[in-house]
Amino acid sequence: MAKTWKISRRRVLRGLGATLALPYLEVMGNDGLSKTLPPVRLCCVFQPNGMYPAAWDAGVPRENQEKALSVLSPLSAHDQGVTRIAGLDNVGRGHVQLTSSFLSGVPVIGKKAATSLDQKVAQHLEGKTLFSSLVLGTEPPRQGNASGEPISYANTVSWSSSDTRLSPEIHPQQVFDRLFRSRTHPAARRQQEGRRSVLDFVLEDSRRLKKKVSQQDSKKIDEYLAGVRQVEQRIENSLNPPEREWIPPSQPEFTRPDALAPEDREAYLQVMADLMVLAFQTDSTRVGTWMMAHGFSRLNFSFLEGVNGDHHAMSHHKNKSKVIDEYVMVSRWYVKRFGYLLDKMSAVDEGNGSLLDNSVVLFGSGMKDGNGHVPNDLPLLLAGGAGGRLKHGRKVIEHPAGTPHANLLLSLAQMMGMDLDHFNGVSSGTVEI
Q1: Which of 83, 125, 160, 298 could, after both became Cys, cross-link 310 (CB 3.0–4.6 A)?
Q2: What per-residue confidence (pLDDT) applies to 21?
Q3: Does residue 194 sit in the same domain as residue 164?
Q4: Residue 10, in any domain of the structure
């Protein structure tokens, strides 16, 4: 009788400069596989400059109403799997503060905010995947000030601590290489080990220096050492990837992106969405954040028929009907990109459901109406099933006026397994989701 050939579930595909974890294959056997459920992922998607209130509040139009005012018409295919959250208020003023508080509940003041939802969950899940989180964007930081705060601080919604913001990766090829470049090739290993020895040297030298400097400088060195330790941990994770507790059952198909980001804006956002899905599908990370654009985005949308000018300018529409029409068209364009992400996540079969079924996806903006930077009744959507924890029985969940947006952040943190009774000290409880 011929022997049954099996391979290890830890088997990876290796090539020059690349490794790729295999999905589950029959040849690996199925002992215990049915007992392992896919992990729940958190995906946070940010759109800048708010929404025209009437177009958002119109909700998802019914069948054959694609030309309705609603900015949510591109989500009609997901009508039964998306819930609109209403009545939650952000804190802060202007683009910079309302961007920083979108996932932290705390506006940036004097270059300090608070740890954001995505990074709290990433820290909670530390060590389960190669990367604790993936933070993607499409625009670099901008210079200048707005309402007394640096505009550059509006380039991210992700904060790993009160004074450490995480700048999104905006180059698709660099994201791809970070996720899939070789960590086992001898040359790569030597390079990483050499870098680690340099870090050890820096740490020791810094400790010696710390004994000779002022208290203020000592604090700065402590902050520096903390940053170095984070880098050291990432290198250690690269050299010794965590034990895989879940085997992705589907085969990803992809090619390495070009070095330069696509000039076509739709193609650019599409490839970033593809990379986010790949990161989740291969269990490279379970926390992803996607800044569709800078929080003070002045991206020119003249590539859309009927639109002339930049997004920030049209968000200050002054109730002029033509400008409002353009504002709505741009918002609908962003929502369509979000719909593409949901489509891709829905198409990944994980055995007990799709990737979307095993994720919780938050979409929204840090302000409601850009005309006046209105922070009340944020435009927010929840999608995904969170592994059965999230149900979408109603189209809209209304919360009492004045309910802090931080209450939703607390509820999502708890849904992701965190034992918290408040969110950065600014929540007043949880909310129904």
Answers
A1: 298
A2: 47
A3: no
A4: no
